Amino acid sequence: MEQDTIVAIATPPGEGGLGVVRMSGPEAIAFASRLFRPVRPGPLRSYRLRYGHVVDPTSGLVIDEVLVAVMRAPQSFTREDVVEFSCHGGPLPVQQTLQGCLDAGARLARPGEFTLRAFLNGRIDLSQAEATLDVIRAQTDAGLALAQAQLGGWLAREVRAVRAVLLDLLAYVTVIVDFPEDEVEPQDIGPRLRTSLQTVTSLLQGASQGLVYRHGARVAIVGQPNVGKSSLLNALLRSDRAIVTPVPGTTRDTLEETANLNGIPVVLIDTAGIHASNDLVERLGIERSRAALAQADLALLVVDASRPVEDEDLLIARLTADKPTLLVWNKLDQQDPAAPSLVSIAAHLAHPRLAATVATSVATGEGLETLVQSLVQVLLGGHAPLAAGEARLVSNPRHHDALHRAHEYLAAALAGWDANDPTDLLGGDLLAALNALGEITGESVGDDLLDLIFSQFCIGK
């Protein structure tokens, strides 16, 4: 790891109450001392805010009035000496303070380099480093809770506990293979293999839910013109985002907005009504509707309860046949008394992946809460929503992949042990499982993977 001193702006661009310039490395305090003039003379002490000014050392001109915080190694985020300048939150004071640090000898940090140093210096493991970014990017309370739990180290502790067992088992197997002449007391490693496999299985079981809470889902609202798609979007968003009129074909383009549905960030896509049209602009909108539907994770197929099911409804149902679909029987307040039941309509549509049917009235609000609950249940694969205080789910695709591979290797090792396979084959599966789990905590990763992970961070974090 490079031992130079790095600096970056740690707050978003633009105007604000404060702008923070962060510096970390062996020369951070020395470089800061060249720029900072405290109102009261004296050395910069750790964990004490000092009031003063950042001054251009060449001209002596004041750049900004600031507060300076010093955190000496190893009691800092990076476990290096860290200095933070809290400036006025305008672009010029922050940029000129940054330039002063660069002129003093610091290097501009790369994206995620502060967090990378925290990882390389043992302050956090790789799963906690990734959780730092998840905290920043969380869109819902549930997503934030999952990220904070992972940042607290629960996943790392689970993984390290399994790795400790596997290391012990691998040491035993290695001795048996490499030193057959030594008298090693036989061990039944089957029970510990089973326990390790059960732990990994348990972590995997909640991963699909965790991924949904972290990444969310795209949901396309489709149907014929004037069935209430835009009104449904507004109702789910609890705001008048889409224009609604009684005129069919009002929506000419797709409209995307994100809603927080029971802790899941859901991108709702209002689409133009799909039907045969000679209007060029409307046809372009319909093509975009089809494209949005193709990219969606789930479809809300909206059918008008005030009229019989038509051939166009059946056509649109066939367009959604390759993805989970909720049938929304809307305008319940205008329902034709002679109309067939919702069950018979669902049967008539003959949708191969129909996940649920919900009767709604956007005008009265009837059925909307049921729709949200059904939508959340489908997205979570039938599992109950995350309860308060339950924030221990694997939510990172990279972790899910590593756990899946570890599960396969452990299952093979256990099957081999039960079948009395050669011990050297068992050692290979154990080593592979160890390496897969080590990818989660960073104990067995290469520089290429680290570069990929930390390149996703902003500069200054």
From TrEMBL:
<dbReference type="GO" id="GO:0003924">
    <property type="term" value="F:GTPase activity"/>
</dbReference>
<keyword id="KW-0547">Nucleotide-binding</keyword>
<feature type="binding site">
    <location>
        <position position="230"/>
    </location>
    <ligand>
        <name>Mg(2+)</name>
    </ligand>
</feature>
<dbReference type="GO" id="GO:0046872">
    <property type="term" value="F:metal ion binding"/>
</dbReference>
<feature type="binding site">
    <location>
        <position position="226"/>
    </location>
    <ligand>
        <name>K(+)</name>
    </ligand>
</feature>
<keyword id="KW-0479">Metal-binding</keyword>
<dbReference type="InterPro" id="IPR025867">
    <property type="entry name" value="MnmE_helical"/>
</dbReference>
<feature type="domain" description="TrmE-type G">
    <location>
        <begin position="216"/>
        <end position="380"/>
    </location>
</feature>
<dbReference type="InterPro" id="IPR027417">
    <property type="entry name" value="P-loop_NTPase"/>
</dbReference>
<feature type="binding site">
    <location>
        <position position="22"/>
    </location>
    <ligand>
        <name>(6S)-5-formyl-5,6,7,8-tetrahydrofolate</name>
    </ligand>
</feature>
<keyword id="KW-0342">GTP-binding</keyword>
<dbReference type="GO" id="GO:0030488">
    <property type="term" value="P:tRNA methylation"/>
</dbReference>
<feature type="binding site">
    <location>
        <position position="251"/>
    </location>
    <ligand>
        <name>Mg(2+)</name>
    </ligand>
</feature>
<keyword id="KW-0630">Potassium</keyword>
<feature type="binding site">
    <location>
        <position position="84"/>
    </location>
    <ligand>
        <name>(6S)-5-formyl-5,6,7,8-tetrahydrofolate</name>
    </ligand>
</feature>
<dbReference type="Pfam" id="PF12631">
    <property type="entry name" value="MnmE_helical"/>
</dbReference>
<feature type="binding site">
    <location>
        <begin position="270"/>
        <end position="273"/>
    </location>
    <ligand>
        <name>GTP</name>
    </ligand>
</feature>
<dbReference type="Pfam" id="PF10396">
    <property type="entry name" value="TrmE_N"/>
</dbReference>
<comment type="function">
    <text>Exhibits a very high intrinsic GTPase hydrolysis rate. Involved in the addition of a carboxymethylaminomethyl (cmnm) group at the wobble position (U34) of certain tRNAs, forming tRNA-cmnm(5)s(2)U34.</text>
</comment>
<feature type="binding site">
    <location>
        <begin position="226"/>
        <end position="231"/>
    </location>
    <ligand>
        <name>GTP</name>
    </ligand>
</feature>
<keyword id="KW-0460">Magnesium</keyword>
<keyword id="KW-0819">tRNA processing</keyword>
<dbReference type="InterPro" id="IPR006073">
    <property type="entry name" value="GTP-bd"/>
</dbReference>
<dbReference type="GO" id="GO:0005525">
    <property type="term" value="F:GTP binding"/>
</dbReference>
<feature type="binding site">
    <location>
        <position position="461"/>
    </location>
    <ligand>
        <name>(6S)-5-formyl-5,6,7,8-tetrahydrofolate</name>
    </ligand>
</feature>
<feature type="binding site">
    <location>
        <begin position="245"/>
        <end position="251"/>
    </location>
    <ligand>
        <name>GTP</name>
    </ligand>
</feature>
<dbReference type="GO" id="GO:0005829">
    <property type="term" value="C:cytosol"/>
</dbReference>
<dbReference type="Pfam" id="PF01926">
    <property type="entry name" value="MMR_HSR1"/>
</dbReference>
<dbReference type="InterPro" id="IPR027368">
    <property type="entry name" value="MnmE_dom2"/>
</dbReference>
<comment type="subunit">
    <text>Homodimer. Heterotetramer of two MnmE and two MnmG subunits.</text>
</comment>
<dbReference type="InterPro" id="IPR027266">
    <property type="entry name" value="TrmE/GcvT-like"/>
</dbReference>
<feature type="binding site">
    <location>
        <position position="245"/>
    </location>
    <ligand>
        <name>K(+)</name>
    </ligand>
</feature>
<feature type="binding site">
    <location>
        <position position="247"/>
    </location>
    <ligand>
        <name>K(+)</name>
    </ligand>
</feature>
<keyword id="KW-0378">Hydrolase</keyword>
<keyword id="KW-0963">Cytoplasm</keyword>
<feature type="binding site">
    <location>
        <position position="250"/>
    </location>
    <ligand>
        <name>K(+)</name>
    </ligand>
</feature>
<comment type="similarity">
    <text>Belongs to the TRAFAC class TrmE-Era-EngA-EngB-Septin-like GTPase superfamily. TrmE GTPase family.</text>
</comment>
<dbReference type="InterPro" id="IPR004520">
    <property type="entry name" value="GTPase_MnmE"/>
</dbReference>
<dbReference type="GO" id="GO:0002098">
    <property type="term" value="P:tRNA wobble uridine modification"/>
</dbReference>
<dbReference type="InterPro" id="IPR018948">
    <property type="entry name" value="GTP-bd_TrmE_N"/>
</dbReference>
<dbReference type="GO" id="GO:0042802">
    <property type="term" value="F:identical protein binding"/>
</dbReference>
<protein>
    <recommendedName>
        <fullName>tRNA modification GTPase MnmE</fullName>
        <ecNumber>3.6.-.-</ecNumber>
    </recommendedName>
</protein>
